[in-house]
Amino acid sequence: MSQSSTLDRLSALDTNTVSDALDFLNLKGATYGLLPLWNCPKIVGRASTIKVGPKTDTTPTVHLLTPVIDAVETDDRVLVISGGIDGVSCWGDILSNASKEKHIRGTIIDGMSRDIDGSREVGYPVYGRGVTMISARNRVVQVESGKPLEMRGVTVHQDDFVIADTCGTVFVPAKHIDKVLEFGERIKRRQAHMVQAVLSGHPVSEVMHDTQFEAIREDSLSQTSVASLKGNPKKSSAGDQELVALFAGLDTPGVSDALDKLGIPGQVFNIMPLSNYKKATIGPAFTVRYVPASDPPGSVGDFIDDVAEGDVVVIDNNGRTDCTVWGDIMTRWAGLRGIAGTVIDGVCRDVTQVIADDYPLFTTGRWMRTGKDRVQVGGINEPIGIGKVRVEPRDIVVADSNGVVVVPRDRAREVAEVAQRIEKIESSIQVMIAGGATIAEAREKLGYHTLQRKT
Fold first, then answer.
1. Does residue 3 surpass a pLDDT of 70?
2. What's the rounded Cα separation, in Å, for the pair 384 and 266?
3. Would you list which residues are annotated within the binding site for substrate?
4. 168 with 246, same domain?
5. Is 246 found in the same domain as 156?
6. Binding-site annotation, residues for Mg(2+)
């Protein structure tokens, strides 16, 4: 097979699918934490490996990485850089411009980049740990190139294959690329079939059953007939609807202040929205607890068939970032069933689909590696802990672009009343300011500084 044909086939996949294919073949390749440093496109290519390290003397050196860039003669290269130092750049906009001119497809750094706006302006993809303003000059030097190196626990050789997108970065050993592509294409076909089954109303417990995944090895699709299903037969109770309505028009900052005033811990730490949602997601918690997989492994997603319309799925995966518990099939099914949103103390994948569907998802991050055979459901509708907050089944969840708060169900009316009062006072302050009052005058008159203090 020609190299261009191989790259075309790899380009037709995404990191989630390639990661799953590597799992089927018991190969390493998925890396955690190497994400796009601007909203850059997917990149696919062959690795040009470069190792950098701390500069230990004062001898002048050639500018970092320039010899490798100058030596590139083909248009299939992705620069793969290891050895970066936290807080110190080993990439910048001049290097991006030079690489763009050489038709290099992108750069992946186990380290930091600076001048990221310059890379964005020329449309040059950069993936890495993060951004900084601190220069590499007299701090970082090139150690070697064209040799095997370690990227977040994965060994990458010169000419290995690389794919990177919004979920992260995956490296595929060149000697295994044909088999990985074969399995990746099987998985893609299988997942398309599963999504269609979900869209047609087939129970997700059957769609995502282990037998469906294992059939990928034979590439034989199940021909199970699919019955049409409209909406969700599990409806929200009158009591749930009443409590949810109390929080209509409120946001998480106002509810957070009310929780503070009443001495209730409910602000969920380190779980943030996947996108900048324009309205709050409010609903009773359907709690799910994940545990490490047993042998043989158990279910990963069957619980979603039991979630009622308007519920918020709240998942405790113990903050794990090495495997996901939510993807495109779950997103599609949740949307069809009228589920309000999902909160995960852990990571998600298939984020492009989630964002396209505008499904409210709140997580600690994103990664492409599946949770199948790594975790399983340990319990549903039992007390769990997420982001340092205890969540009981049917507690009221409020989540928006600021984050997530959880309100104990038995205090929901009290919290909503205080939050509404705080919101009214803050609105009055804005009216006074618009009428000519100073901020100090308005705040003093309406008691702004004591709004969230315990009474």
1. no
2. 13
3. 327-330, 349
4. no
5. no
6. 350
